[in-house]
Amino acid sequence: MQSNHWKKFITACIAVLGIVIGWQLVEPQQASADEPTYTFATNNTFEPFEIQDSKGGYSGKNPGIEIEILKKIAKHEHFKYELKPMSFNGDLQALESGQVDAVIAGMSVTDERKQKYDFSTPYYTDGVMMAVAKNSKITSMKQLKGKTVSAKSGTSAALFLKKNQKKYGYKIKYFDSSNTMWNDVKIGNTAATFDDGPVLQYGIKEGVPLKIVTKKPIDAQPVAVGFQKGKNLELQKKINDGIEWLNKTGQMKQIIDKYTKGNKTAKNSAADRTIMGLLKTNRAALLRGLWMTIELTIVGIIFAMIFGIILGVLGIMNNKLAKGVSSVLIYIFRGIPMIVLAFFIYMGLPNVLGHKVPLFLAGVLTLTFDEGAYIGAIVKGGFEAVDKGQWEAARSLGLPYGKALLQVIAPQGFKLMVPSLVNQFIITLKDTSILSAIGVMELTQTGTVIISQNMEGFKMWLIIGVIYIIIITLLTWLSNYVQKRMA
Amino acid sequence: MDKRYKVQVKDLHKSYGSNEVLKGINLNVKPNEVVCMIGPSGSGKSTFLRCINKLEEPNSGHVYVDGYDIADPQVDINKVRQNIGMVFQHFNLFPNMTVLQNITLAPVQLGKMSKEEAKKAAYHYLDLVGLREKADANPSKLSGGQQQRVAIARALAMKPDVMLFDEPTSALDPEMVGDVLEVMKNLAKQGMTMIVVTHEMGFAKQVADRVVFFHDGDIREQGTPEEVFDHPQHEDTKNFLDKVLNV
Ligand SMILES: Nc1ncnc2c1ncn2[C@@H]1O[C@H](COP(=O)(O)OP(=O)(O)OP(=O)(O)O)[C@@H](O)[C@H]1O
Ligand SMILES: [Mg+2]
Questions:
Q1: What residues does the ABC transmembrane type-1 domain cover (chain A) (predicted)?
Q2: B170 and B142, same structural domain?
Q3: A78 lies in which domain range?
């Protein structure tokens, strides 16, 4: 590569960096006016409490009980809100770290939780129910000895199972979303699942092939909005006032009945359930998810390359401090599982920084550090693999270190690195799916949301798997093309 | 430092760990002088040569080139190196560039010449080594002898006033050696100051103004080619010459 190619490449990188940072800075500031805005963590697959539309938002006609309640209260009490859909565990972590102001996620009020959080007035009573496959012979908990049962981690069902494990002698398997958990029962991996009654009822009404075997909800508990203990008292009051108003005016009952009685929320069950049909119905959502995956991959790769090149260059310098910094950073970021890094950046960092980290930025940072560390190791190895004689020839001509590196060593090193880098780019693309854990609406998360609505796990994951294969193939072709042109 | 000398080395010491490779070397090289260094393998010839342009950092002592002490941290070593051409045993051409780019890289990057000037100069030096027609070839397409001649042209393009050669012909097939030595002879004739580590005793006899015999990290003996080859004073020198001349 010639020097002006390098300059172009670096200029392009800086331009992208500028655009992304600019965009990230501008975006969160668009909140307006004098009404305060609160952030609520919520559950992304928790019908009938929350029902995401195909865009991952809640602007459909039937967004779920809690969303409708919140909408009404916000209007009545004059505040704005922003929703962060995550897994229930993510919700709790987000609340603890102050990333959100409250959790509205079908959260049942337990004694244990009362010690940790403040709760609003309950608006619903929820109990755990046990469900088994439609053709199962199990009817009571006594038949569960030695069998595997499931619950969503962090839920009251999980607490219940833990408490009674000795008594009944089952094994517990934890899941993050109802849908995957139910599917596990359907295919026979787990004998029974324990989930919130209304959630199960709603799912079965929507066509999940399970049956409920408990007569009365176990461990019935009130459901309420959770807050950080002793904080956000103003919001707590607004929510409580709002609930009282909804109860008084009978609107609360109306909303709840809409989702648990009759057939008002039923989606067009006659919809085309073939793969082509599913593709057609979910085309917009899938494209949006795909685009987010591509965006994350491209921006992630660019920043990971910048970070990786910096790490690689530091790693080969004749300077102990630089070398040390490089290898420590590579060691740390390669050592931390990416999902932990994502949680740390999205939920841990705000505690230190004092303000929230936008979701997309958190995703890009996660990719930058994690993939960048791997790229750093590749770059370092590639530079080191260039014959030492090349350094000596370049330096003996009087070229300073930087020029020798840029003009002589780097082009040869990169050529050696290309296969490993291409491999790392493909891994980066696949790793974007890990970011679904913090709620980034990329392809995998889109799949989770769609499946939570149509229960077509097998076909949808098949579609999504094929989409990944296609974009990975395209990326590989592109890399091979670039590789050939460089040779 | 003495203004009469192009290169002046004073009490140069170099160790690798506990292995003392150079044990206090003193050597003065006058302008236009051709010094050939001979000696057994491992005696420190390469290390000495590489200390002159600071590819190796000496432990103590001084090396003055054109009056600049390379050990002095105030001295810009990159500037000094521009005046010291070096030719390696394994050529070390840049494989990611053409022959022409190999030669023009440093003069252009270091602002010594414009691209056009550098190209002209490159053709001039390629003429000198007889490889004009290979200007656009990739180094890997050249024979070893041709590669080494390009490497010499590359070093010359910086217009150095000292040239260091570290066994420039020992990686070559025998039939290639002559061409490279011929180029070096011409350089010597034109008055280039040269320090040449070599096993080519014929070349040393014919071209050297002075032959320096290295042994065990020290200069054991030096003098004109006649003195060293025909009347060696030292036992070590005699042994060495016996071995290399009577194979
Ligand atoms: N980078 C290094 N690290 C440790 N020891 C080294 C290093 N370079 C050279 N040496 C040692 O220094 C001594 C002198 O090596 P040098 O290469 O200068 O010898 P030489 O006279 O050039 O030999 P040859 O004729 O084989 O090229 C040898 O013992 C060698 O093993
Ligand atoms: Mg040597």
A1: 290-479
A2: no
A3: 37-123+224-267
